Amino acid sequence: MFRVAHALLALVLPVLAAALMAPVAAAAPQASLTAKLRPKRLGAATAVSIAFHLRPRPGESLLPLSNFALRLPQGMGFAASQLGLATCSPERLIANGAGGCPLESSIGNGTAQVRVPFGSTAVQEKMRVFIYMARPIAKRTTTLFYFDGRKPVVAPLVMSSQVVTPEGFSDSVLETPVEAIPTVPDGPEASLVAMRSTLGPASLRYYRRVGGRRVPYRPEGFSLPARCPREGFRFEASFRFRDGSEANAHSTVPCPRAPASGVAQGRRA
User: Fold this and answer.
1) Which of 198, 225, 254, 266 has the lowest tally of Cβ within 10 angstroms?
2) What are the sequence ranges of the domains in the chain?
């Protein structure tokens, strides 16, 4: 019996030792996503609101974000919208701020939260976000996110986002590389913690000439498909951090209810 037990220990102990010495995989940061459509009527123009929030690994600080990608539901995109009848450029935004772009280049707005490290502590800084249409790059729809930071904590910055269609898919993905967010001179970069933005908001106004006068109007936003998938309109987001770790999140907007009058707005696919 003693020899059997001794033999079992000889087999088990190396396995336990290897397991204890193996590196423990670090928990990935967590992400949440919320999507809203207003109004939510099939086949009609709508404003798209997106909000995300990032949380660090337990016991750690949130690493800076390096890339953010948002996949829109199939059938939604800029092509059928009236958003961005003019364009702006990063140089113009940096030189003149949010008021320096043509009014008809504005396509949305929002807010963002960044975490700014100061020694062993950190503060949360709120920034206004303005979204503009830019000139296409490689025939891809390109937008600009202008973060209206306040020196000396966070300087204003511009991030460019391109609309791409992955091979084998028909839906659109907004790819946004996230550049380093500078803070005080020689200080560490800030981390984007959360952002809430709306494309095609109700407050957006363009102008056109009618009888020699400039008349304001609200441009139509994204076109909601005439049919709703059975699971609803699904938005997906992926986040990549400076150390190569990733986090994913999704949000589904339920199909709109049938109108009380009984007039069909479109059937579920």
Assistant:
1) 254
2) 27-253
